[in-house]
Structures are given as structure tokens and as C-alpha cells.
Design brief:
There is one protein chain. With about 475 residues, this protein is an alpha/beta fold. The chain has 4 domains: about 1-30; about 45-135 and about 300-350, Rossmann fold, CATH 3.40.50.1980; about 170-295, no CATH class; about 355-470, Nitrogenase molybdenum iron protein domain (Rossmann fold), CATH 3.40.50. It has 18 helices and 8 strands. The protein has helices spanning about 1-25, 60-70, 90-100, 115-120, 140-145, 160, 170-185, 190-210, 210-240, 245-275, 280-295, 305-320, 325-350, 370-375, 390-405, 420-430, 445, 450-465; strands spanning about 50-55, 70-75, 100-105, 125-130, 360, 375-380, 410, 430-435. Strand 3, helix 4 and strand 4 form a beta-alpha-beta unit. Helix 8 runs antiparallel to helix 9 (about 210-240). The longest helix is centred in the middle third of the chain and has 31 residues, at about 210-240.
Length: about 475
């Protein structure tokens, strides 16, 4: 009885409240309009992307975003803060590549994993874009893969590197000189260097013996000279292996032998081509060779605005091929970006036109294209890679060179470790300044609004200080 009375009392109290609410609601003829307003005609939704683009390094990612605009969805598989040199794709990255319309990368000289990733993705419709205009021989091991079932080492296909159509002796000298330079700069150890030298000698000697009879009548003199060089080098390697001489002494002796044969080879080449010689052209060729050594094999092409323009145009063409309906938009976006790059080039040319120094000391030799574009010589604490440790002898040479040049600044990649640069700076009494190679950016840089152009502006400021520009 008490429960029934309580329920009746509750109903009696609640009913008047409900009637009041209903009366208020009846005064508003369209209450729903305040909950679901009609969208404003001005708020047009963004168009859906028509192109799915996967990229690698920061620079090509930025260029792809600018060229593609809203029509392209661009995703970099090398994430912010990741060391681009050490990056290796995981299975999810391969899937992402396989589902994309376009893959934009720089060059196999940097992204050595690209060929394997493309093969694993197995996409018949994928448009692959190599943006860096570098010699094709760097790509041989990546383009052709392991077609014969033989393992290739991490340094690529030696037969493609040395070639069968060029001067074998000259190519051998250049290849071994490069190995010695890698050792001196700390990119590889002396033991690794000797391993490479032995491998090169073994392969070149094998190729030479296989072709001996076919070309003997025409090339006897050159073959004898090559055999002599191979024999000298193998004797030195044997002495090192037996412990008769140290690895450092062996490298110095090999370097000396290479220098002698390289000089003789140049003289023979000059005589064969023109016995009267053209000294002016020879000097010009030497200059070009020197630049080629610094920049020709350097994959960091985007640091030169004029080289970056070439990359932009390659990206534009690829996007237009994959998505013809968007060709006009891609051309418009690319033209805008190219104009900005030309302006940047003009700013660098003007900013570096009146400087007291023409040499820059850098943490590693990633700035060959930038240096070549504006008449600067780079001296690196390390080679193209920022891995490995430079020898104390080489560090001492750098310090002496800085004193000789009057250089008081050292240009360091911001993301990489600074132990070596700090040691050299302390020894030479110099100041460290940032010089960004833009292989990748940190999350903080991206969150702070950093772009290719803002970083290049900072690079120009560092260069002007380091080179003493007015």
C-alpha cells in the first residue's frame, strides 16, 4: 500500500513539469534547426586527392608536395627524425609502395634499398621516379639485381663500375684511389680497405686474363702496363698480409704506385689523342675532374637550387604521366616552385660573391653540388657518409689546413653527432655552425614550420659567416 501511494505521488508531481516543457516547445516552430544548421555555401570541401605518392628523402618529399598540391596525397616512408642513411624499409613500407601510384626517390647511390623494395612490391602500375641526374653506373647493381644468381657485395657490381669499354688501367687506378680516400677519411677501416683492394684486383685480373687473347694483337702495350700495375699492387698486399709492413705503410705504398701509373696513363692518353697537346684544355679538364670527384658521385643534388629545378621537372613529368587530367595543375605548381628556386639561386650567387675564403670545412662531404654551384671547395672531416671515424693523422691534417687557410668555422650537419666536429673545433679554436643537408628533418623542425627554403636561407647565413662574405 505504501509503495502504490508513493508512485501516485511521483506521477502527480512530475506531470505539471512535463506540461510546462511541452508548452515551451510549442512556441518554437523549428527547434531542430539550432541543432543541425545548414552548411554555409562558402565552405566548399577540399577535392579528393587523385594521386597516391610515396617518397623517400625530405627534399623530394617537399618538391612532390609542392608539385602535387591538393591533387596528390604524398607520404614519406622515411619518417621525421630517422637517419636517412641508415633507413631500411619494413614490410609495411613495401605494402605502401605497392599500393601507390608513384614512387619518388633521389638515387640508388643514397637509397640503396629502392630496387629491392620495388621488386618486393611487385606493382605493375607503379610509376617510379629517380630524380637525381647522376651517372647510371652507380645503379647497375640495383637496376639489374642478382640476375645470374651470384651474390653481390655491398659495394655493387665491379664489372659495371670498371667497364669493359674504357681504359682498364685508368679505371683501376681511380677505383683503388677512391678506396684509399675512404680509408683516410674514416668511412671504412684499413682492414676493410685492403679487403676491397684485394677484391678489385682479383676481379680485374680475372677479366683481364679472360680477354687477353681476343685483344692481344691490338692492345699488347697497354696490357703489359696493366699487368705490371696489378703485379706491383699484389706484391704490396702480400707484404701486408704477411706482416712485413703495416696496413698504413701498405696504403701509402699503394697510393704512391697509383700516382705513378695514373701520371703515366695521363701522358699516354694525351699522346694518343693529340701529340701536340692542348694544355689549356688539359687544365680545364683537370678542374672538371676535380669537381666531378666532389660532386659527380654525390647524391645530395637538391642542395644546388639549379639541380633541384631538374628534380622538380622530373617529378612534374611523372605526375602528369600517372594522372594526365592533372597535368595543367602540376605544370602550374612546378612553374611556381621553379621560379622560387631560381630566386634562391640568385640569392646564393649574390650572397657568396664577395667572400674572403673559398674553402669550407664540413663535417662530411655532402655538399659537393652546393660547393660546385658557387665556386667553393669543401674539405670534409668524413666522406659522403657521416659514419666511421677519421684517423688521428687525417684530423691533424684538417686542423693544419684550417690554420693555413685562416678558416675559423666548421660547418656541421645539425642532426648528426658532433663528437668529431667538436674535437676538431677544439683543436683548431674554431666555431661550429649548422649546415643542413636536408636528408631528413626532425619532428621539431617540421612542427616549427621549417621548409626547404627556410633551411636553405639558414644555410646561406652560415656560409656567409664561415667564408667571411661581405
Amino acid at each position: 500500500m505504501n509503495l502504490t501511494i508513493a508512485r501516485r505521488s511521483l506521477v502527480a508531481l512530475t506531470l505539471p513539469v512535463l506540461l510546462v516543457i511541452a508548452a515551451c516547445a510549442s512556441e518554437d516552430p523549428s527547434p531542430a534547426s539550432t541543432l543541425a544548421p545548414e552548411p554555409s555555401p562558402a565552405s566548399t570541401p577540399a577535392p579528393e586527392p587523385q594521386l597516391d605518392v610515396v617518397t623517400t628523402l625530405y627534399a623530394v618529399t617537399y618538391f612532390s608536395e609542392r608539385v602535387g598540391g591538393e591533387r596528390a596525397q604524398v607520404e614519406s616512408i622515411v619518417k621525421a627524425g630517422v637517419d636517412a642513411h641508415a633507413f631500411e624499409p619494413v614490410p609495411s613500407d613495401v605494402i605502401t609502395i605497392g599500393e601507390a601510384d608513384v614512387l619518388v626517390f633521389n638515387h640508388p647511390a643514397f637509397e640503396s634499398w629502392v630496387a629491392d623494395a620495388i621488386n618486393a612490391a611487385n606493382s605493375q602500375s607503379l610509376v617510379v621516379v629517380k630524380t637525381a641526374d647522376l651517372p647510371d653506373d652507380i645503379e647497375i647493381a640495383h637496376d639489374h639485381g642478382d640476375e645470374d644468381g651470384h651474390d653481390e657485395d655491398e659495394h655493387g657490381d665491379h664489372e659495371g663500375e670498371y667497364g669493359k669499354h674504357g681504359n682498364e688501367e685508368t679505371e683501376l687506378v681511380e677505383a683503388l684511389a677512391h678506396v684509399i680516400e675512404e680509408v683516410e677519411h674514416g668511412d671504412i677501416t684499413a682492414a676493410q680497405g685492403f679487403g676491397e683492394i684485394e677484391e678489385v684486383l682479383h676481379e680485374v685480373e680475372g677479366d683481364h686474363e679472360a680477354e687477353d687473347h681476343a685483344d692481344h694483337e691490338e692492345e699488347t702495350g697497354k696490357e703489359d702496363h696493366l699487368e705490371e700495375l696489378i703485379h706491383e699492387l699484389e706484391e704490396i698486399v702480400a707484404e701486408v698480409e704477411s706482416g712485413a709492413v703495416t696496413q698504413d705503410e701498405g696504403l701509402e705504398r699503394i697510393e704512391s704506385v697509383l700516382g705513378e701509373h695514373g701520371h703515366e696513363g695521363d701522358e699516354h692518353a694525351d699522346h694518343d689523342e693529340d701529340e701536340h697537346g692542348d694544355h689549356d684544355n688539359d687544365e680545364h679538364a683537370d678542374k672538371e675532374d676535380e669537381h666531378a670527384h666532389d660532386a659527380g658521385m654525390d647524391p645530395h643534388v637538391w642542395l644546388s637550387p639549379l639541380e633541384a629545378i631538374k628534380q622538380v621537372r622530373v617529378i612534374q613529368d611523372a605526375f602528369s604521366t600517372a594522372d594526365p587530367e592533372g597535368a595543367d595543375l602540376y605544370a602550374q605548381n612546378a612553374n611556381t616552385l621553379v621560379d622560387e628556386l631560381r630566386t634562391l639561386d640568385a640569392e646564393f650567387s649574390a650572397g657568396l660573391s664577395s667572400c674572403s675564403l673559398d674553402h669550407m670545412i664540413v663535417s662530411h662531404k655532402a655538399y659537393g653540388h652546393l660547393a660546385e654551384a658557387y665556386g667553393i671547395e669543401q674539405i670534409g672531416l668524413q666522406g659522403l657518409s657521416n659514419e666511421g671515424e677519421s684517423t688521428p693523422r687525417y684530423v691533424a691534417q684538417i686542423v693544419d689546413k684550417m690554420t693555413e687557410l685562416g678558416s675559423r668555422h666548421l660547418l656541421q650537419e645539425p642532426i648528426a653527432g658532433t663528437a668529431l666536429a667538436e674535437m676538431v673545433a677544439a683543436e683548431s679554436g674554431s666555431e661550429i655552425l649548422p649546415l643542413h643537408p636536408m636528408e631528413s628533418l626532425t619532428p621539431a623542425e617540421l612542427d616549427g614550420g621549417a621548409t626547404y627554403f627556410t633551411i636553405m636561407d639558414e644555410n646561406l647565413r652560415s656560409l656567409r659567416v664561415a667564408l667571411g662574405c661581405s
